[in-house]
Amino acid sequence: MLLLIIVILAIALYPNQQLFTSSTDLSHESIEPFSLHMSVDEDTLRSVGEFERSLQPDGYGYQSATYYVHTNDAHEITSISMGEDLQTSSGIQIGDPAKKAIDVYGDDYYTYQEMGLGEAIVYIDRDHNIKFTI
Predict the structure, then answer these.
(1) What angle do CA 128, 133, 134 make, to 5 degrees?
(2) Cα–Cα distance measured from residue 62 to residue 53, given in angstroms and rounded to the nearest whole number
(3) φ and ψ of 133, to 5 deg
(4) pLDDT tens figures, 75-111
(5) Would the pTM of this model clear 0.90, i.e. be above it?
(6) CB–CB of 83/96 below 8 Å?
């Protein structure tokens, strides 16, 4: 009985939209020269502009005028944020309507309210451990 109560509470407290959203293959996706899980060095980072490097608790952060890349201690990219001058390999860029992203990536996504920014659309690739937020 206690186990049943724990399971019910876990399901109630877990973000249900994420739990029930089907996986989307994002393994091909990249932003300019960067893709998740690729190893990167400072020469590659400089190929798109100057940057500031910061030591993070779980790796390094690289901030430029047009992107932010986070790597783990092995210099594998774990997160990418892009500015207005960049686009994804599928042609999505900041300012595009949500419909364009849905046309490209499909209907398997969930949404949530991003504080101060409006509604965010999130695609999940469970096979490649990628979360893509628009």
Answers:
(1) 135
(2) 5
(3) -110, 130
(4) 998 888 887 778 889 999 888 898 999 999 999 988 8
(5) no
(6) no
Tell me which amino acid residue 86 is.
L
Q: Report the alpha-carbon distance of residue 108 to residue 93 in Å, rounded.
A: 20
Tell me which amino acid residue 123 is. Answer: Y
Specify whether the CB–CB gap between 87 and 101 falls below 8 A: no
**Which structure tokens are listed for 77?**
């990219």
Cα–Cα distance measured from residue 44 to residue 49, given in angstroms and rounded to the nearest whole number? 9
Angle at 96 between CA 62 and CA 107, to 5 degrees: 100
- DSSP code at position 65: S
Q: For residues 120 and 127, what is the distance between their CA atoms, to the nearest angstrom?
A: 22
Question: What ranges make up the beta strands (E) of 1-134?
Answer: 52-56, 59-63, 67-71, 77-82, 110-114, 118-125, 130-133
Do 133 and 120 meet the contact criterion of CB atoms below 8 Å apart?
yes
